[in-house]
Design goal:
Blueprint (H helix, E strand, L loop, with lengths): L2 H19 L23 E3 L1 H9 L3 H12 L5 E7 L3 E6 L1 H14 L13 E5 L11 H19 L3 E8 L4 H14 L12 H13 L9 H23 L6 E4 H6 L2 H11 L3 E4 L2 E4 L10 E4 L7 H14 L4 E7 L5 H11 L4 H4 E6 L2 E5 L2 E2 L12 H8 L1 H9 L7 E4 H4 L7 H21 L16 H11 L1 H10 L4 H19 L15 H23 L9
Parallel strand pairs: 4-5, 4-10, 5-6, 10-11, 12-14
Antiparallel strand pairs: 1-3, 2-3, 7-8, 8-9, 12-13
Helix pairs in contact: 1-3, 2-3, 4-18, 4-21, 5-15, 5-19, 6-7, 6-8, 7-8, 10-11, 14-15, 17-20, 17-21, 18-20, 18-21, 19-20, 20-21
Length: about 550
């Protein structure tokens, strides 16, 4: 019995109790959840439904819990139900119901863990969005790993997700980039406010090769701007693609200007009554919605501000039908939250529902206890290529998605490249490989799963522990999606890996028979459990964009 099935059983029992007692069935929630108690002695699962609804129907929670316990005790698969505290239900499953989870997982395959928790939500998820003036740096690498994992989680939880990279191809930083390329092509030092690093010289040389005579043209800087930005962005897309990150939409800031969308946003905000003029500039009164100061949209010289483009871009996303705009930003953008939330309110939206801004903290790549600070190509920062070269794609993605994004982290190269159980990604991937190896060895011994599966044979403590841990997966996925925290999936995978190792190392839980020992139903049942573990580990690693190897 899966936790989801058990939750349905609890809700069905609650409806039966309400109907018998003449209580208002409408007071019951549409869905409920069951959780694993922290103390295993309290049962397999716990429910708080009696506490949730008792006040609505005017029945003391323990009295309601007693009626629910009696009704649940009649349901197939329920061994016992105890009442604890003010009205908690502690539920124990019979062996057959508990063990049946292994078959459910194997049969569900890649679909195990999918929920409809976020069905109906249209979410635009923007992440990375590095300026096309250099390779993706260390902060962007974190968002690439976390953002891509989050997009997979949201889709698994039923949301309609569009991933987006905002391509800042307008503004002063692009001018500095173009001047830096031109200087490099001429063999001159980079401008004082320009960009350095070997990549500038490389791209400058590519521009000269693609556009012969560019240095003698009427406006070489403009050529270096156009061609250089295209080359740089192509490199960014390639490096992200090799990292396993692809976006549904690459959105050009310049298009907002060319299509007149900044003026459209200004007009919309004026209609809402939040625009005012002073000193020749056009302002948005964001202080009406909690911002620390009002914001300029158009300067007195007629130039648009970056914030005006932010407004137009947000409006564009909402016009495309996205209910919720999620933006992932670096630690240096914390002050961005107030103005963006206020801007959303100025458009007439509810910032708590329509706009979500996630801030990621700093990450350091560490070797021999010291931060790695310099890139071979970029000169001043660690890039995506540096990260992958040091750790590999799988370890990089897992390491960055394993921690809450609002916590600064140090990624130790020595740890994350070691073939030891201290290396979390190795520890989890080893289980993926071991379960595949066990299945191969079982097949060689003539042991295969059969339809005559006897889940009631999975009664050993190590089997029960593994089953319960596997059963946590769907709720963990849903929780991680709802809270935008992929690290919960990684931590559960490590928990499952530990439970599997203890199961595998237990002589009484041997899967393949020894020597001439006959194959029994117990062997077959444990093979189902082995393959269920492989399924959940593979599904979870896939959510993180990490491979589940069959051999290591």
């Amino acid at each position: 019995m899966t936790p989801a099935n058990l939750a349905d059983t609890v809700l069905s029992a609650a409806r039966a109790v309400f109907e018998t007692r003449g209580l208002d069935v409408a007071a019951l929630p549409a869905t409920t959840a069951v959780e694993r108690p922290r103390n295993p002695e309290h049962g397999d699962y716990a429910s708080t439904i009696a506490l949730q609804v008792s006040k609505k129907v005017g029945v003391p929670p323990r009295e309601l819990a007693a009626a629910l316990a009696e009704e649940l005790g009649r349901r197939p698969g329920i061994k016992s139900v105890e009442i604890a505290g003010p009205g908690f239900l502690n539920i124990r499953l019979d062996a057959g119901a508990a063990g049946a989870l292994a078959r459910d997982i194997v049969l569900a395959g890649s679909g195990y863990g999918r929920t409809d928790r976020l069905t109906g939500e249209r979410i635009n998820l923007e992440f990375v969005s590095a300026n096309p003036t250099g390779p993706v740096h260390i902060g962007g690498v974190r968002w690439a790993a976390v953002g891509d994992a989050l997009s997979r989680l949201l889709r698994t939880a039923g949301a309609d997700v569009g991933t987006e990279y905002y391509f800042n191809d307008a503004g002063s930083q692009i001018d500095r980039f173009a001047r830096s390329l031109l200087a490099a092509a001429k063999g001159e030092p980079a401008p004082e406010d320009g960009y350095g690093g070997a990549y500038i010289a490389e791209i400058a040389a590519e521009v000269v090769a693609k556009v012969p005579g560019v240095l003698d043209s009427a406006d070489p800087q403009e050529t270096f701007r156009q061609v250089g930005v295209d080359l740089m962005f192509a490199e960014i897309k390639q490096s992200l693609g090799e990292f396993g990150v692809h976006f549904d939409t690459y959105f050009n800031e310049k298009d907002l200007h060319d299509r007149g969308e900044l003026q459209e946003a200004l007009d919309r905000l004026r209609e809402q009554g939040h625009i005012f003029e002073t000193d020749g500039a056009t302002w948005l009164r964001t202080t009406d919605f909690g911002d620390d100061k009002d914001r300029v949209l158009r300067k007195s010289d007629g130039d648009w501000t970056y914030f005006a483009a932010d407004c137009a871009y947000y409006l564009d996303k909402r016009k495309r039908g996205f209910d919720r705009v999620v933006i992932m930003l670096g630690a240096d953008h914390h002050g961005y939250i107030g103005r963006m939330k206020a801007m959303s309110a100025c458009f007439g939206d509810d910032p708590s529902k329509n706009l979500e801004i996630l801030i990621g903290q700093l990450v350091n790549l560490v070797r021999d206890g010291e931060p790695v600070r310099m890139s071979k190509r970029a000169g001043t920062v660690v890039t995506l290529e540096d990260f992958v070269e040091a750790l590999g794609v799988d370890a990089t993605r897992y390491a960055l998605a394993r921690y809450s994004s609002d916590s600064p982290i140090d990624i130790d190269i020595d740890l994350w490249t070691s073939a030891s159980r201290e290396n979390p990604v190795y520890y989890v991937q080893y289980v993926a490989a071991r379960t595949a190896s066990v299945a191969r060895n079982a097949a060689d011994a003539g042991l295969v799963r059969t339809d005559d599966f006897k889940p009631e044979l999975l009664t050993h403590d190590k089997e029960n522990e593994l089953l319960k841990t596997l059963g946590e997966y769907p709720e963990t996925v849903a929780f991680a999606a709802e809270h935008r925290e992929p690290h919960h999936v990684a931590r559960l995978l490590e928990k499952i890996a530990g439970a599997y190792h203890r199961f595998y190392d237990e002589p009484a839980c041997r899967i393949t028979p020894k020597g001439d020992e006959p194959i029994t139903d117990g062997h077959r049942s444990r093979l189902w459990l082995n393959d269920a573990t492989r399924t959940v580990i593979a599904n979870g690693l896939s959510l993180l964009g990490v491979s589940a190897p069959e051999r290591m």
